[in-house]
Description:
The chain is mainly alpha-helical. It has one domain (about 5-185): Up-down Bundle (Four Helix Bundle (Hemerythrin (Met), subunit A)). It is built from six helices and two strands, in the order αβααβααα. It has helices at about 5-30, 40-65, 75-100, 125-140, 145-175, 175-185; strands spanning about 35, 110.
Amino acid sequence: MSAGIAKIVWCLGCVAWFVIRYPHARRARKTRVVGGARGAREWALLSISLSGLGVLPFVYVASGAPKFAGYEFQPVLGVAGTFVFAAALWLFYRTHHDLGRAWSVTLEIRERHALVTHGVYARVRHPMYSAFFLWAIAQALLLPNLVAGLAGLVGFGVLFAGRVGREEEMMLETFGDEYRAYMARTYRLVPGVY
């Protein structure tokens, strides 16, 4: 594997992400929102995450900038990054599939919202966050640039840290003891670890 192929893999992963998400985003717009935590803070967190997982790596892929942060590409890391990205996309697809109409890009409760505890949600409460962390790891492995490669971990890490607690509070307010029981039998991101 070459650095050029690794960049292509990253680009194809971004296209696949869009293809997976697009029909769910269209469907979500048709389902009425009855509660949530939209606002400037939420959009700021999403913008930081997008910068780390999209904007900065795209600038690097397109131009090689910032050149001072580049280092020699290691083919074995590129191959590992390809497999990690494939796993991220599979998990990303499964989370959208399992959530169905309950999916939203921001923290929202939809009309007739039901707590999803099946599929990948049977063991992990936030598998979509797990998928994005896998994407960020894949990006770090695929792009030999300290800024562009690590920007995903930083950008998405900020979103996760700023959002997961609020999301769980919202779910507790909405589902009460049902969500408390779900929290007791699942992990946040990695089964058996965290």
